[in-house]
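Is this the right way to post structure tokens for a design question? Let me know if I should format differently. Anyway, here goes:
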């Protein structure tokens, strides 16, 4: 009954219930659906707290149906740490499809690319398929840009401009900007001429 009542403070309490003995698969699924629903009631909950609760829920879930409830909730997050929880489950025989679908949802939400030219195809630059690519579909000109919204502060180690499949069509020069506010981009952090 408690799991059926919306309560933003309930996830930790519901997780405690799972420690007092085994639940039937149906009851466990109900409890974990309640945990996920209640986590989603507070989108302004600190990200660290949400990830900790999802981590605990995933560890406490015993049945596949309970794990699927947690996987579905993780798929709604805009946090790279959700990928760390979901990716290992993609190899699970019973949960792999659910986990893979959730990974894809998180990736699409996290890495939202756009571009000054041909923005509808910008997603092709990040789809992981070497047979597709983004092209500006126009001659190069000053002021062209390609932007990726990572959704939250993220450490970047490298950027790869792979033009192997389009040897005559590549940026002749580039600058990399990192910013939280497009109106205050500051100076480029990297750049070069090709």
């Amino acid at each position: 009954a408690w799991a059926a009542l919306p309560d933003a403070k309930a996830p930790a309490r519901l997780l405690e219930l799972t420690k007092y003995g085994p639940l039937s698969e149906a009851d466990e699924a109900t409890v974990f659906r309640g945990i996920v629903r209640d986590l989603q009631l507070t989108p302004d909950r600190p990200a660290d707290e949400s990830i900790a609760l999802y981590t605990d829920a995933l560890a406490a879930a015993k049945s596949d149906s309970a794990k699927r409830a947690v996987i579905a909730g993780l798929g709604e997050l805009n946090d790279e740490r959700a990928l760390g929880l979901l990716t290992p489950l993609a190899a699970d025989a019973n949960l792999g499809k659910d986990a893979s679908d959730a990974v894809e949802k998180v990736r699409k939400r996290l890495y939202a690319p756009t571009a000054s030219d041909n923005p509808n195809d910008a997603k092709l630059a990040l789809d992981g398929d070497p047979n597709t690519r983004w092209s500006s579909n126009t001659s190069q000109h000053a002021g062209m840009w390609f932007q990726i919204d990572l959704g939250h502060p993220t450490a970047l180690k490298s950027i790869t401009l792979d033009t192997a499949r389009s040897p005559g069509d590549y940026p002749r020069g580039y600058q990399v900007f990192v910013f939280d506010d497009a109106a205050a981009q500051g100076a480029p952090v990297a750049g070069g001429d090709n």
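Format looks fine. Someone answered above. Worth noting: The chain has a mean pLDDT of 87. The radius of gyration is 21 Å.
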